[in-house]
Design brief:
Residues about 265-270 have low confidence and may be disordered. By secondary structure, the chain is an alpha+beta fold. It folds into 3 domains: about 5-55, no CATH class; about 60-160; about 180-270, Orthogonal Bundle (hpI Integrase, Chain A). The protein contains 8 helices and 8 strands. Helix 2 (about 60-70) runs antiparallel to helix 3 (about 80-95), helix 3 packs across helix 5 and helix 7 (about 190-200) runs antiparallel to helix 8.
Length: about 280
């Protein structure tokens, strides 16, 4: 009998097995006929769940999907620390036993609301739309990967409904004599870096070059930029004049400067100019 009422309880329980999987719980019904209707609905949902689980031949538990995603591609991302962080946020919110096939649009909306209430640091400002969207987009990537494994989602969230509007990137060019005044105020050992930034038009973080990214033979600079996209810049005669004299200053990094005092792990003397030292 798959529907029964335990002693001392007013509610009927359901308990059945389907292809080796056990499903049980309360029907929240006090009448047997109503409980049987709930049990039939539970059986239909169980059939869909088992079909999905067997299709991918793996668990659809969020913890298991996240772990498999991490092993297959996540740990190989250039920004793998952020991938790990976002996976942790998903498990923190949904719990490790949440089935991917049970996540609905309402669940995603709740996730967005939860992330919007978090802060950059304790006592600091609330995180912005970029950070909130990063978590939602990571969840979408899990759905995409699971579909590659063979899973099918009948009620996949409508992702575009949950993206927060992100502020447009502010792009500003130096006007009038600002370039000359900036150059006059710039230290001599930093001048090649700022000259390269002006000549290339790259974003600030994209200007922190390694020699492995400078390809003299093809006259190109190839570097991963914002969002992990590959940014290719031609080595013009102007850029060549800036970079060529810097060879031999450092075996790995293109731009260096003279540190005038100790700071952290950096000691006084020749230092590299990178995104972590800027």
């Amino acid at each position: 009998m798959s529907v029964y009422r335990p002693k001392g309880s007013p509610y009927y329980q359901f308990d059945f097995r389907l292809r080796g999987y056990r499903f049980h719980g309360s029907t929240k019904a006090t009448a047997k006929r109503e409980a049987e209707a709930v049990e039939r609905e539970k059986r239909e949902r169980a059939k869909q769940r088992v079909t999905q689980i067997e299709a991918v031949r793996t668990s659809l538990r969020l913890q298991d999907v996240a772990q498999k995603y991490w092993i297959e591609i996540g740990e190989h991302h250039k920004g793998h620390q952020n991938t790990w962080h976002q996976l942790g946020k998903l498990i923190e919110f949904f719990g490790q036993d949440k089935l991917l096939c049970e996540i609905t649009g309402a669940d995603v909306a709740a996730l967005v609301a939860w992330r919007r209430g978090q802060r950059v640091r304790k006592g600091g400002p609330l995180i912005g739309p970029f950070a909130v969207n990063a978590t939602t987009k990571q969840l979408k990537r899990l759905f995409i990967r699971a579909k590659m494994w063979g899973a099918r989602f009948e009620h996949e969230p409508q992702w575009q409904q949950h993206w927060l509007k992100e502020p447009q990137e502010r792009v500003r060019e130096l006007a009038d004599d600002e370039a000359e005044r900036l150059e006059a105020a710039t230290r001599g050992d930093l001048a090649p870096f700022f000259a390269f930034a002006r000549a290339s038009g790259l974003r600030l973080r994209e200007c922190f070059l390694k020699w492995s990214e400078v390809h003299w033979s093809t006259r190109q600079i190839r570097k991963l930029g914002k969002g992990g996209r590959l940014v290719t810049t031609s080595i013009t005669s102007t850029i060549r004049e800036i970079l060529w004299p810097l060879r031999g200053h450092h075996p790995e990094y293109v731009f260096t400067f003279v540190a005038q005092r100790n700071r952290g792990a950096r000691t006084k003397g020749l230092a590299i100019l990178s995104a972590t030292t800027a």
